[in-house]
Amino acid sequence: IVGGTVATVESHPWVATIFWLSKSNERVFRCGGSLIADCWVLTAAHCFPDNSYGTERNFSVTLGKNALNETDLTVEQNFSVAQIIIHEEFDNSEGNFNNDIALLKLRATHTKCAEESPSVRTVCLPPPQHSLPPGFTCEIAGYGKEKHGLWYKSQYLREAQVNLLADDVCRHRDYYGNMITDNMFCASTPDWSQDACEGDSGGPMVCEVGNRLFQFGVISWGDGCAKDFRPGVYTKVTNYNQWIEEKTGLTFTTAG
Ligand code: 4AZ
């Protein structure tokens, strides 16, 4: 996150950290994610190798994590991954991560996955095709770099506010032109000071509607970070309600 502030996981309790387990069994931070149901984490497809079949055991997920390189077992919950589901139409042949969405099924221990606590809870999914107006302010969070070009990621969870950009603006040739598909939207700030950056991808963009926070975006890509005319690009979650329900076998309602 560029231009943001340190945040506590208690204020983003759905944030998941996805680790890749190296051959020497080191946990290498890979991507962010979000808890959408007790056994399901939503993230970006590009976080996983081309053929992820059989690679589940190479990943683990931590919920309730404040600091990447510190472990607080009194609040963190750790899971192995039972299943990685990459969107069938994920496509990076044009270099734009189309359909950049994936689901991780957490492996239950003693029939339970995530347990709700002040540091761990699910985020709501918005109703299908629900759209917000350009200029609307939403929040992003992650452990990604604080500046493009740094060699290290953030030690602590950070958050920033960004504004949704109209599609025709983001598709303008001064911006990203035809790289932006209907499965994406863009967000930035007027002074280009706040943005997601390397290491934030897979993590959630949440927007407040009617006093509730809904996840409208998955942090996906961008040309650099917080660069003029180069907004952050997000996977449009409202295009995938049916896909998410199909794959998880769950129904997500927004009432109540
Ligand atoms: C990345 O590499 C990345 N500025 C994510 C988001 C953005 C840039 C890069 C948006 O994961």
TrEMBL record:
Any one GO molecular function term: serine-type endopeptidase activity
EC numbers: 3.4.21.4
Ranges where the Peptidase S1 domain occurs: 1-249
Compartment list: Secreted, Extracellular space
Residues annotated as transmembrane: none
Chemical reaction(s) catalysed: Preferential cleavage: Arg-|-Xaa, Lys-|-Xaa
EC top class named in words: hydrolase
Domain of life: Eukaryota
Biological processes annotated in GO: plasminogen activation; regulation of cell adhesion mediated by integrin
Protein name as annotated: trypsin
Organism: Channa striata (Snakehead murrel)
Full-sequence portion shown in this chain: 172 to 427 of 433
